[in-house]
Amino acid sequence: MVGGWENGVDTYMKSSPWVKYILKNSLDAYRYDYYTIGRYDRDMERYLPDNPASDEHHLRYDCGNFYASKTFYDPLKRRRILWGWANESDSVQDDKAKGWAGIQAIPRKVWLDHGSKQLLQWPVQEVEALRGKLVSLNERVITPGDSVEVTGLQTAQADVEVTFEVLSMEGMEALDPALTYDAQKLCSLWGADKKGGVGPFGLWVLASAKLEEKTAVFFRVFRDVGRNNTKPVVLMCTDPRRSSLSPNLYRPTFAGFVDTDLSQGKITLRSLIDRSVIESFGAGGRTCILSRVYPSLATGKNAHLHVFNNGRVDIKVSQLAAWEMKPAVMNARI
After folding, report:
1. Across residues 264-278, what is the average pLDDT?
2. pLDDT for residue 7 is more than 70
């Protein structure tokens, strides 16, 4: 295995021939977590992946800054919980000044989709207990090149759920066959500021008042020409390259393809924003991206939230709900 193993292997084991098994490992080379889906042959004492070729295209828990994860089973609510680690992207000098580096991501419920092709993830329900003031935006059409600010709440710590509706698929750009399986490179080349056909559209989070700083979490829809598939290819991306005016920060784009049905034109996005952390879940948790950002202007009450559309077709915000998030109670007596 190239890159070396770290934190061992995480397996989900149940004694039934009808149960799927997940084999996951953390690779130190890129600090990503990969997994395969398969079955366990007890007689052979061997794990057999359903699709051995999937190793080539890499199923990942999270397409962003998410590493060294572990799971456990919650017998009370009959769910499996996933914990992951997020490294810092700050400067070494600032890390030393803080006296610590790295945080735990918000715990997620993880389960297998109905087609047994991938895992789905969603923040545990308990996170919703931190929701405070609610602001909504519904049935709002975002025209090409336009953006709308979501006002009336503080968004440095927020939980945002939005349903987008693509009103036309005309003008989709053709996906370069060389990038058919390289979402990361596709996002770096086709970032949030590059105007397109269907998209980019999504959220600007932790944005400053004049948009000198902003982190984009967005979708972009391509026409597939390389996989002989009439289904549109949906790219989900977090683009933090304009997230901060501070120098010496690591600001990579993170991206993944979203296996979702756009026949009705709708796709959902949920983003949890917590000062320097943005955890986003596309299409009900089919694609997840965690990113670390360090704005210098868009902090506290000076952080803003926008919906934007840099494509050539109208995008409707069917529903948007944004909650201020209250601080978690740490080390409280039970």
Report:
1. 97
2. no
